[in-house]
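User: I'm new to structure prediction. If I give you an amino acid sequence, what do you actually give back? Let's try with this one:
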Amino acid sequence: MVQARAVNIRSGWKSLFTVFTIAASDTDGTAPFLRSASPQAAPDRRPAAEAIVRLAFEIVAMIMKDYFHLICDGFFVECVNCLIAYGNNRHFRDFSFKAIESLGFCAEQLAGGHIPASGYSSPAGSAASPAAVFTDSEAHLRFWFPILTGLSCIISHPHIDVRTKCVLSYAALPVS
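Assistant: Good question. You get back a string of structure tokens that encode the predicted 3D arrangement of the chain. For your 176 residues, that looks like this:
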């Protein structure tokens, strides 16, 4: 659906990111759609859960790569929250690493002036110039807040390598 009709999704991005966030939270196959009818037939669900997390993250990565311009205007925060959920995934560290990298990409886009801040206008009344990459206006801060709080949550990840990558990513944020 995303590949075929991304331009027509419009308000559906929020629902898609909600589904992807739920998929990121499914770390051990306990999602309702993976539960078997009888407790005796409960197989190891971890491979199925990993497949779901992998597929959902691949779609999120594809959206970030190919359709970021469609989501950055109205659904940037939902995208960031989805990436934070992947970063907090405690069972599949590979997705945590990729999510931290994607959060860094979001921060670069925001610092570069590529995310339109609704309600923000430059003093001249035109679009914000790339030279003024960070302001203390509320419209601009509302995009930084989810990134910073999300990275601060991921820093408490139980795996030291994920925490280290997150701290390094946090230190490398392109804030002028």
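You can read the tokens as a compact description of the fold. Here is one thing that stands out. The first helix runs from residue 2 to 5.
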